[in-house]
Design goal:
Distance between the termini: 17 Å
Radius of gyration: 17 Å
Strand order of the largest sheet: 3-2-1-4-5-6
Mean pLDDT: 93
Largest sheet: 6 strands, parallel
Helix content: 40-55%
Structural class: alpha/beta
Number of domains: 2
Order of helices and strands: EHHHHHEHEHEHEEH
Number of helices: 9
CATH architecture of the largest domain: 3-Layer(aba) Sandwich
CATH superfamily of the largest domain: HAD superfamily/HAD-like
Number of strands: 6
CATH topology of the largest domain: Rossmann fold
CATH class of the largest domain: Alpha Beta
Length: 218
């Protein structure tokens, strides 16, 4: 029988894990590239869905380089990223919670450190969380351009956490691989991707407490 570790901290992605914002962001990418053929739009949205944890800047840059195959200036990139932000900000602030997420956070508040690490630009992420009155739940709120594994490693060091005593909850392969790279356990919240075989995957956060308890002594 494997001895369970005690849980020290929980790391969360944001979109699609705590708030139901994936559809809003999918549609924003469709609108952003509305002047292109439907086939190109579908490929861009599919890439966005498969790489939910990386920044919009990286996704836009990839779309131009590998799908549209046109040059992209820094000015155009900044303009598109700003347009995207303008289309999603208020909608994400006002969107519903993922089922069970609010209750889970309220139930563990103050019991252990809880962090948010997202591909959303950090200033925007903090504004969204503040305006949604969610800040009280988190020890740290971190976003792009710094990548998730770097954020995780910095937090592990700062809070003197043992990786195998921590868990990352995400909905993208980017989240899964960030957890693998840094030694954290992982639970997937079902979204637009298929996780590797053997991954614990939940339809929402309603069963999260039970799933975590199955991995840790808590």
């Amino acid at each position: 029988m494997t001895l369970k570790h005690s849980l020290q901290a929980i790391f969360f992605d944001f979109d699609g894990v705590l708030v139901d914002s994936n559809a809003t962001k999918n549609e924003a990418f469709r609108i952003l590239f509305r002047d292109y053929d439907e086939e190109i739009i579908q490929k861009i949205v599919a890439y966005h869905q498969r790489h939910g944890g990386i920044s919009r800047v990286e996704k836009i840059r990839y779309a131009y380089q590998h799908i549209i195959k046109q040059p992209l200036t820094d000015e155009k990139l900044a303009s598109l990223a700003a347009e995207y932000s303008g289309r999603v900000l208020e909608k994400v602030i006002n969107t519903d919670w993922i089922v069970g997420a609010k209750e889970f956070l309220e139930g563990i508040q103050g019991a252990l450190p809880v962090f948010v690490i997202s591909g959303t630009p950090e200033d925007e992420l903090k504004e969204i969380i503040e305006r949604r009155k969610m800040s009280k739940h988190f020890e740290a709120i971190l976003g792009s351009p710094i990548k998730k594994p770097v954020h995780i490693c910095n937090l592990l060091f700062e809070y003197r956490l043992i990786p195998e005593h921590c868990i990352f909850v995400g909905d993208a392969l980017t989240d899964y691989y960030a957890a693998r790279e840094t030694g954290l356990h992982f639970i997937g919240i079902q979204g637009d991707v298929e996780f590797p075989k053997g991954t614990t995957v939940l339809p929402n956060c309603k069963g999260l407490k039970r799933a975590i308890a199955a991995l840790f002594s808590c």
